[in-house]
Design brief:
By secondary structure, this protein is α+β, with helices and mostly antiparallel strands. The chain contains 5 helices and 5 strands, in the order βααβββαβαα.
């Protein structure tokens, strides 16, 4: 069973991660198909290179949810790695993270928040104003790792 409703009170949002949280984030990454295989060093670099990192910790300072943002500070903010520990799913922590991201002082003047997700997650993000209608814009990717081999 998920954490009980009484556990919600003990959850605190943090802005920025301490070094022990980065290790905990790495553990969370290993539990998801889309982040599994990232090394601890890559996790450290991802956190260091992000403009905003938000986490939710439990009463024992264990990281149970996380999101990060890259931004130009004016027009665009791209949200990455919205992740909630299995034991805390169903507690609306994803919702809480997205609300905290949109209200973060470094992001209050942003014109467009953007993210990408699997089609089955689009209804979840639509609740926060995200839309798949982006004027015909398409995601394009160049995998430079293949070019460097």
């Amino acid at each position: 069973m998920s954490a009980s409703q009484t556990d919600i009170v003990g959850l605190t949002t943090i802005s920025g991660l301490q070094s022990h949280h980065v290790g905990q984030l790495h553990t969370l990454y290993q539990q998801e198909w889309w982040t599994r295989g990232r090394s601890l060093r890559e996790t450290e670099r991802v956190v260091d290179g992000s403009h905003v990192c938000l986490g939710i910790v439990d009463g024992e300072d264990a990281l149970v949810a996380f999101a990060r943002v890259l931004t130009d500070g004016v027009f665009k903010a791209l949200i990455f790695d919205v992740i909630v520990a299995d034991r805390c799913r169903g507690l609306q922590l994803g919702r809480r993270l997205l609300e905290e991201v949109k209200a973060h002082p470094r992001l209050t003047d942003i014109r467009h928040f953007e993210l990408y997700c699997l089609p089955e997650l689009a209804p979840f993000y639509a609740k926060f104003g995200f839309s798949t209608d982006v004027g015909g814009v398409r995601l394009m990717r160049c995998n430079v790792a293949d070019d460097r081999r």
